[in-house]
């Protein structure tokens, strides 16, 4: 694997920190057996929307649908 700095001039400490993150992520991915399903993202989980109570019908109910109180 080759990593190339395209823009900027990182210090040796910044470069070492970035490489440590990349290597840790690669080691974590290598530790997972092939074929193991990865958990889905909570962002796309429809149940996270239903955790909040829906507003009662009123003239301003549509504004409170997406802006929690």
What does the model show?
The protein is mainly α and 69 residues long. It contains two helices and no strands. It has helices at residues 12-31, 61-66. The radius of gyration is 22 Å and the shape is elongated. The model has no long low-confidence stretch (mean pLDDT 78).
Give structural attributes.
single chain; 69 residues; mainly alpha; 2 helices; elongated
Structural class: mainly alpha
Main pleated sheet: none
Helical content class: 25-40%
* Shape type: elongated
| β-sheet strand percentage | under 5%
Report the end-to-end length measured between terminal Cα atoms.
48 Å
Spell out the helices and strands N to C: HH
Q: From the alpha carbons, calculate the radius of gyration and give it in angstroms.
A: 22 Å
Number of strands: 0
Number of helices: 2
Average pLDDT rating: 78
Instruction: Report the uncertain regions.
Output: none
Ordered list of secondary-structure elements with their pairings:
Layout: H1 12-31, H2 61-66
How would you sum up this structure in a few lines?
The chain has two helices and no strands. It has about 70 residues and is mostly helical. About 0% of the residues are buried.
């Amino acid at each position: 694997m080759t990593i190339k700095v395209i823009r900027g001039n990182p210090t040796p400490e910044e470069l070492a920190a970035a490489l440590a993150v990349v290597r840790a992520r690669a080691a974590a991915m290598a530790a997972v057996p092939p074929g193991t399903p990865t958990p889905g993202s909570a962002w796309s989980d429809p149940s996270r929307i239903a955790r909040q109570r829906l507003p009662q019908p009123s003239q301003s109910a549509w504004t409170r649908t997406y802006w929690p109180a």
